[in-house]
Amino acid sequence: MTLSATSEDRRNPLAGLLAENSNLIGLAAIIILFWIGFTSYAPGFVSSFNLFALSRSLAIDIVVGFSTMVVLATGGMNLAIGSIGVCAVMFAGWLMQEVGIPLPIALVAGLALGALLGFLNGFAIVRSGVNAFIITLASASLFLGAMLILSKAVTFNTLPPEVAAFGRMKWGFVSPLMVIALAIGAAMVVLFRFTALGREILAAGANARAAELSGVPVGRAIIVAHMLSGLLAAAAGLMLLFRLGAAMPSIGQDWLLPSFLAPVLGGTLLSGGYVSVIGTILGALLVTTIRSGLLVMQIGNFWLQLFLGLILLLAVMLDRYRSVHAERRSLGKRA
Amino acid sequence: MQLSIEDIGKSFPGVTALDGVSFTIRPGEIHALMGENGAGKSTLIKIITGLYKPDRGRLTVDGKEVAFSSPRDAIAAGISAVHQERNLIPRFMVGENIVIERLPTRGGLIDYGAVHREARRFPDMIDPSIDTHTEVRRLSVAQMQIVEIAKALSLETSVLLLDEPTASITGHETEALFAVLRRLRDEGKAIVFVSHKLEEVVSICDRVTVLRDGRVAAAGEPIATMGRGRIVSAMIGREERVAEIGERRLAGAEPVLEARSIATSLGHRDVSFTLRKGEILGLYGLVGAGRTELARALIGDARILSGEVVLRGERVTIGSVPEAIRRHRLGYISEDRKAEGLILAHPIRSNIVIPIWRRIAGSLGLISRAAERRVAAPLAQRLEVKAPSIEQAVGKLSGGNQQKVSIAKWLAAGVDILIIDEPTVGIDIKTKTAIHELIGEITRSGVSVLLISSDMPEMITLADRILVMKDFSIRGEIENTRRYEAMSQAIMGHIHDGGDDEAKPREAGHG
Amino acid sequence: MTKRFTGVAMRALPMIAATLMGLAAAHASDNKIALIPGGPHPYFAPWEQAAADAKKDFGIAAVDFKVPAEWKLNLQTELIESLVSQGYNAFGIFPGDAVGINTTVEELASNNIPSAALAGCSQDPTKVAFCLGTDVYNSAYLGTKALIESMGGKGKIVHLAGLLVDPNTKLRMEAVEKAVGETNGAVSLVQHITDTDAQEAADQKINALLGAQKDQIDGLIATAYIPSVVAAKSLRNLGDKRIKLVGIDDDKIVLDGIKDGFVAGTMAQNPYGQGYVGAYVLDLLASGTCTVKADAPWIKTPQTAHFIDSGTLLISASNLDSYSSDLKKLTGEIQSTFKDKYLDCK
Amino acid sequence: MTGLFDRILAKEWSALAAAIIAGTIGLALTSPAFLTEFNLYVMLRSFCVVLVVAFAQMLTLAVGQLNLSIGALGGLVAVLVGGMMEKLGLPIPVAILAGLLVGAAGGLANGLLTVRTGINGFIITLATASAFTGINLGITESVPFYDMPAAFVAFGSARFSAFPYLLIPPVIVALALGLFLARTIPGRQLLAVGGNPHAAELSGIPKDRIVVLAHTLSGLLSAVGAILAVAQLGSAQPTIGADWLLMSFAAPIIGGAALTGGHISVASTALAVVLIVLIQNGMVLTQVDPYWVQFVLGALILAAVALNRARALRAERG
Question: ipTM of the predicted structure?
Answer without folding.
Answer: 0.80
